[in-house]
Amino acid sequence: MPALLDLIRPHQWLKNGFVLAGLVFSQRWGDPELLRAVLMAFAAFCFTASVVYIVNDWRDRAQDAQHPTKRRRPLASGTVAPRQAVAVGALLAALAVAAAWDNAALQVLLALYVISNLGYSWGLKHVPVVDVFIIASGFMLRLLAGTAAVGIPPSRWLLLTGLFVALFLGFAKRRAETQHDEASRRAVMKHYPPALLDTFVASTMTAAVLTYGLFATSPESLLQHGERLVYTVPVVAFGMLRYTYRVHLGHGEDVSRDLLRDPWILGALTVWLAVFLV
User: Both 82 and 162 in a single domain?
Assistant: First the structure.
């Protein structure tokens, strides 16, 4: 069971929090039907993401077995047999289909997510910049799934903020990987000198904070939320700067784990929720 959990990587489901953004910013979580629709979309993306991880690990199992750290993955190490992985993947795929059964828009978004990730695994992960944009597209599809489930058009500033946050996390991940030894780096890293990645991280972080500020002060946001979001702009800036600091300490390769390990980032998230909700 621990090996199977490691195979489906449930800690990575934290990324699917982007699906909840539409419900949170619409402030309609008191509607049971909308809450159900969003939670079903969240579950569908969780199951689909795990299927993608299984497919990737199955395809790369021989290569991962020669890698200094990836050789510990269940398929590469042999703790999970390929047929077991296929069975688990089929079950999760069936659960994803069931969760999205009555939502045509969600089905399209999930299909796009699978196609983009298969393209990433089958070669696009070796193309610099394209690789990170594909990672970012996954976050944007999650965001669109959440707004589609709520039935509201997403704010243009919220979409731009989501895009730049996703690009920031993607380039921060690549920056963290530059601190690996040569043998454990992925092939695309030879095209990413640290100075270039520092520029990418700084520019996407700046764009994310700027677009979030524009979102917080937009007329539609002020009409719906009052001035609450305005007070969260410094909190967002602090959280992103703190995350950048941790990247330069060697963290940031696993976004889901690193976001939960830093008490200051968790504190910033708590303050954001307190200001927004209260």
Answer: no
**Distance between CA 7 and CA 124 in Å, rounded?**
23
pLDDT band at 64 (very low <50, low <70, confident <90, very high): low
Structural domain including 29 reads 1-151
Same domain, 75 and 207: no
For the stretch 95-144, pLDDT in tens is 999 988 888 888 899 999 999 988 888 888 889 999 999 989 988 888 88
pLDDT in tens, 131-140: 999 989 988 8
- Which residue among 151, 175, 209 closes a domain? 151
pLDDT of residue 227: 85
Q: What is the model's pTM?
A: 0.81
Distance CA 57, CA 85 (A): 9
Mark which of 131, 151, 171 sits at the end of a domain.
151
Q: Which two tokens stand for residue 2?
A: 């621990």
On whether both 111 and 177 belong to a single domain, the answer is no
Q: Which residues contact 38 (CB under 8 A, 6 or more apart)?
A: 19, 20, 22, 23, 146, 149, 150
H or E stretch at 253: none
| Alpha-carbon span 63 to 73, nearest angstrom | 11
Cα dist from 31 to 26, 38, 154, whole Å: 11, 11, 18
Tally of CB atoms within 10 A around 134: 18
Confidence band of 244 (pLDDT split at 50, 70, 90): very high
What percent of the residues of the chain are helix, what percent strand, and what percent coil, each to the nearest 5? Answer: 80, 0, 20
Q: What is the mean pLDDT of residues 187-198?
A: 88
Task: State how far the alpha carbon of 101 is from the alpha carbons of 93, 116, 121, 171, in Å.
Answer: 12, 21, 26, 34
Domain count, the chain: 2
